[in-house]
Amino acid sequence: MVAFSAQGHLNPMLRLGKRLISHGLHVTIATTHLQPGRRLFKPSSSSSATGHDIDFLFYSDGLDGRKVDIDTFMDSLSQHGPTNLTKLIHQNYHTAPSDANNSTGTRKTRRRRRLCCIVSNPFVPWAANVAHDLGIPCAMLWIQPVALYAVYYRYYRNLNPFPTLTDPDLTVNLPGLPPLRTEDLPSFVLPTNTFGAFSKLFSEMFGAMEKHASWVLANSFHALEADVIINSSKDLFPVVPVGPLVDPSLLGKGEEEEADGAVNLWEVDHSCMEWLDEQAAGSVVYVSFGSLATLSADQSASLERALKEGRWPFVWVVKGTEAGELSTSSGGGQGIVVAWAPQTKVLAHRAVGCFVTHGGWNSTLEAVAAGVPMVVYPQWSDQPTNAKLVEDVFGVGVRVRENGDVKMVVGSEEMGRAIREVMDGPKSEQIKGNARRLKIAAGEAVAAGGEGTSKVSVRKFVDEIVGR
Ligand code: UDX
Fold first, then answer.
1. pTM above 0.95, yes or no
2. What is the ipTM of this complex?
């Protein structure tokens, strides 16, 4: 598996890796060296039912630890990644089927194993070309909703009209999705997008995928996105949902952090768990904006005011890079602030009644799998579309708005309104009911020993790559 070295990309890769191991495959994750000062906190016990772990191998991004902007990083990665990854593969594996008889079982003899498939990540599109050059099949793991796959695909392949500088407010109508207004679209497809590196990346990705990928696997499940999955299969490169990759059966059993396969780029602070034990069921608001988004001082202040005024007990993840200093971090009894939480454990705790999130897809799916309703405060990338899905398609939460429209900085009154709506407002019973139903559906999609849609798809995928 070739992963982009970001938290939101490593977790789904590692979790899919766990599933593949449970089918008897050996899995290695290859990623670039982490930024200086970053460590990879792997689960303390990552052994699986088959008794072997996921290995990590690192290759150079060509920057030798230099800190650069994202455009330079992506350029260097696509320039040096293919050669360095190929070298790494040759050092560790055979790739010819005829060498399969030489394969043996222990970790020490990994160099004698046959590499039967590369699973790439959308942010390393060139990995599909590496697989092609080595003569092995390639699958791509799409780590966002299928809805986003459809939006990006149709945008980068010019299959539908999207907003332009001359028509910035165009509503986008795509098969299987509700009408998407500008504020519902991912920031990368807007005419105002300033992240050129990502546009280039997505174009390369769809090109490499159409040329060389045999499968596109998605971290989603049929019952969650049935309409867009069915409609996309009619005219787009087929996408196979294999999620939720976080394992719903482990959430709430106290062992999920080790067992669900997440890695952490920050050290996990468990101090909030004991505090949660003392709170009433469904009373706590959990606040986290994932690994990349940071709130401005104004955004933090509104949210803090809303929590104070609403008197909701809270757990708030503040990564230490946010603008301004949260006064709540000095205590006060109402809430607890941590630098990095054991998120799946927190979401599964009976005390948590609402998740205030940026709407990153991992966080969203983890909340769906745990049955926790959401208040979505999207910041960029896929998050506005995820917010639209949460509110209008899944019906498991609300999106914050200001003056009826979406704004980057929302006031404390609006934050308070949104949290109240989920906790005990007129729509809260409906939202909680939907969350309970989707939690069950998520569990059924992947249940061990079951015949859920995602479970069956993973089995088929394994059978196909092993059979090649
Ligand atoms: C990025 C993008 O920003 C997001 O929009 C896209 O959908 C995926 O890639 P990120 O912003 O990090 O991801 O958010 P998210 O997808 O939610 O992933 C964060 C991961 O970190 C989750 O798996 C979450 O469980 C974990 N996490 C977060 C923790 O373990 N502890 C924390 O305190 C916060």
1. no
2. 0.99
